[in-house]
Amino acid sequence: MSHTATATSAASAFARELPYYEPVGNECALFEQAYRQRLPLLLKGPTGCGKTRFVSHMAAKLGRPLFTVSCHDDLTAADLTGRYLLQGGETRWVDGPLTRAVREGGICYLDEVVEARKDVTVVLHPLTDDRRLLPLERTGELLEAPDDFMLVVSYNPGYQHILKSLKPSTRQRFVAMSFDFPPPRLECDIVARESGLSHERCAALVNLAGRLRELKGQDLEEGVSTRLLVYCATLINAGMPILEATRATLVEPLSDDLDVQEGLLESIRATFG
Question: pTM above 0.90?
Answer without folding.
Answer: no
